[in-house]
C-alpha cells in the first residue's frame, strides 16, 4: 500500500510536470536564461550545462530550474530567492533535493544502511548517479570501482549477481512475449504481469540489503517462471497446430493425387 501511494505520488508529480509548459527542451523555444548565461561562464559554472545536455533529465525536459529552482525566463532575477531559487544543496540535503520527484526511491534509500549513514560517510544520490550527467540507471552502476570506495565489494557483488540473474530472465521473457505478439497471440495479460514484475524489480536496489534483495529477487524469479510456463504451453499448442496442419495438407495432396490418377485411368 505504501509503495502504491509512493508510486501515485511520483506519478502525480510527473503528471504535473508533463502538463506544465517546460521551457528549454523544445527545439522551437529559445533556451532558458540559466543555460544562456551559464554557457558563457568559466568552467566551474558552464561545466554543469555541458554535462546536463547528455543526461536523461535533459531528454525528459527536466532543466536547471526544475532542480535548482529560480526563474528560467527572467535573466535579471533568475537566481533570486523570491523566485524560488534553491541554490546548491549540501550533501545531507541531496536526497530530499532529488526525492521531490523520486519519492519512492528516496524512501527506500532513507530506510537503508546508506540512508542511515547520510552525513556520516554514506553515499548520496549523486555519489552513484552523478549530479548533472545522470544517465538511465542500470546494474552497471554496481561495480568494484564505485562500490569499494567505502567498504569491501563482497556484499555489492552478491546484490549484483542476484539482480543480474533476474534481469537476464526478465529480458528473455520479454523477448519471447514479443515473438508471440508478432504472430498475433493475445499477450496483453502477460505483458501487464511482466510490467509489474519489472517495476518491482527496479525498486529493489536502494535498500541495499543483501538478504532482502536476494529474497525478493527469488520471489520475482518464481513469478517469471509462471509466465514462462504459460509461454511453454503456448509453444506446445502451436506445435500441435503445426502437426495437425501438416497432416491436413498431406491428406489433401493425397486426394488430389488420387483424383488425378483416376482421371488418367478414365481418359
Ligand atoms: C545573467 C547570468 C545568470 C543567469 C541568467 C543565471 N545564472 Fe546561475 N550563476 C551566475 C553567476 C555569475 C554565478 C556565480 C556567482 C553566484 O553564485 O552568484 C551563478 C551561480 C549559480 C549556481 C551556483 C550557486 C552557488 O551557490 O554556488 C547555481 C546552482 C546556478 N547559478 C543556477 C542557475 C539557475 C537554475 C538559473 C536559471 C533559473 C541561473 N543560474 C541563471 C549567473 C547566472
Ligand atoms: C537533476 C538535478 C539537477 C539539474 C537538472 C541541474 N543541477 Fe546543478 N546541481 C545539482 C546538484 C545535486 C548539485 C550539487 C552537486 C554536488 O554536491 O555534487 C548541483 C550543483 C550545481 C552548481 C555548483 C557547482 C559547483 O561546483 O559548485 C552549479 C553552478 C549548477 N549546479 C548549475 C546548474 C545548471 C546551469 C543547470 C542547467 C544546465 C543545472 N545545474 C541542472 C543538481 C542539478
Ligand atoms: C523535477 C523532478 C526531478 C528531479 C528534482 C530529479 N529528477 Fe531524476 N528524473 C526525473 C524524470 C522526469 C526522469 C525521467 C523519467 C524517469 O525515468 O523516471 C528522471 C530520471 C532519472 C533517472 C533515470 C531513471 C531510469 O529510469 O533509469 C535517475 C537515475 C535520476 N533521475 C536520478 C536523479 C537524481 C540523482 C536527482 C538529484 C540530483 C534527480 N534525479 C532529480 C525527474 C526529476
Ligand atoms: C549506492 C549507489 C546508489 C545510491 C546512493 C542511489 N542510487 Fe539510485 N540506483 C542505483 C543503482 C545501482 C540503480 C539501478 C537498479 C536497477 O537497475 O534496478 C539505481 C536506480 C535508480 C533509479 C531508477 C529506478 C527505476 O525504477 O528504474 C532512480 C530514479 C534512482 N536510482 C534515483 C536515485 C535517487 C533519487 C537517489 C537518492 C535518494 C539514489 N538513486 C541513490 C544506485 C544508487
Ligand atoms: C560513500 C561511501 C559508500 C559508497 C560509495 C558505497 N557505500 Fe555501501 N555502505 C556505506 C556505509 C557507510 C554503509 C553502512 C556501514 C556498513 O555496513 O559497512 C554501507 C553499507 C552497505 C551494504 C550493507 C547494507 C546492509 O543492510 O547490511 C551494502 C550491501 C552496500 N553498502 C552496498 C553498496 C553498493 C552496491 C555500492 C555501490 C553501488 C556501495 N555500497 C557504495 C558507504 C558506501
Low-confidence stretches: 19-27
Q: Helix/strand-derived class?
A: mainly alpha
Main beta sheet strand tally, sense and closure = none
Mean pLDDT: 91
Tell me the count of domains. Answer: 2
Number of helices: 13
Radius of gyration computed on alpha carbons: 28 Å
Strand content: under 5%
Instruction: Give every kind of bound small molecule, once each.
Output: heme C
Please explain how this structure is put together:
The structure is a single chain. This protein is an all-alpha fold and 267 residues long. The protein has 2 domains: 2-137, no CATH class; 154-239. It contains 13 helices and no strands. It has helices at 2-19, 33-39, 43-53, 56-59, 64-68, 94-99, 103-111, 113-116, 125-129, 144-147, 154-182, 188-202, 210-266. α11 runs antiparallel to α12, α11 (154-182) runs parallel beside α13 (210-266) and α12 (188-202) packs antiparallel against α13 (210-266). The radius of gyration is 28 Å and the shape is elongated. Mean pLDDT is 91; it is low at 19-27. It binds heme C (5 copies). One heme C (HEC) binds next to α8, α9, α10 and α11. One heme C (HEC) binds at residues 113-114, 117, 121-123, 127-128, 141-142, 146-147, 149-151, 155-156, 159, 208-210.
Amino acid at each position: 500500500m505504501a509503495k502504491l501511494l509512493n508510486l501515485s505520488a511520483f506519478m502525480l508529480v510527473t503528471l504535473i510536470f508533463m502538463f506544465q509548459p517546460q521551457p528549454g527542451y523544445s527545439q522551437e523555444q529559445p533556451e532558458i536564461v540559466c543555460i544562456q548565461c551559464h554557457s558563457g561562464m568559466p568552467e566551474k559554472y558552464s561545466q554543469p550545462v555541458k554535462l546536463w545536455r547528455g543526461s536523461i533529465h535533459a531528454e525528459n525536459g527536466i532543466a536547471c530550474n526544475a532542480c535548482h529552482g529560480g526563474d528560467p525566463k527572467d535573466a535579471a532575477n533568475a537566481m533570486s530567492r523570491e523566485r524560488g531559487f534553491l541554490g546548491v544543496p549540501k550533501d545531507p540535503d541531496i536526497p530530499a533535493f532529488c526525492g521531490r520527484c523520486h519519492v519512492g526511491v528516496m524512501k527506500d534509500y532513507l530506510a537503508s544502511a546508506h540512508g542511515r549513514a547520510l552525513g556520516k560517510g554514506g553515499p548520496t544520490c549523486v555519489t552513484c548517479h552523478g549530479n548533472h550527467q545522470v544517465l538511465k540507471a542500470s546494474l552497471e552502476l554496481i561495480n568494484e570501482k564505485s562500490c569499494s570506495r567505502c567498504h569491501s565489494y563482497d556484499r555489492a557483488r552478491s546484490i549484483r549477481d542476484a539482480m543480474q540473474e533476474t534481469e537476464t530472465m526478465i529480458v528473455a521473457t520479454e523477448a519471447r512475449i514479443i515473438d508471440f505478439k508478432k504472430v498475433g497471440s493475445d499477450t496483453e495479460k502477460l505483458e501487464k504481469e511482466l510490467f509489474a514484475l519489472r517495476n518491482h524489480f527496479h525498486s529493489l536496489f536502494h535498500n541495499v540489503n543483501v538478504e532482502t534483495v536476494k529474497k525478493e529477487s527469488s520471489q520475482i524469479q518464481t513469478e517469471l517462471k509462471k509466465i514462462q510456463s504459460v509461454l511453454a504451453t503456448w509453444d506446445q499448442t502451436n506445435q500441435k497446430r503445426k502437426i495437425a496442419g501438416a497432416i491436413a495438407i498431406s491428406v489433401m495432396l493425397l486426394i488430389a493425387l488420387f483424383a488425378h490418377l483416376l482421371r488418367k485411368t478414365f481418359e
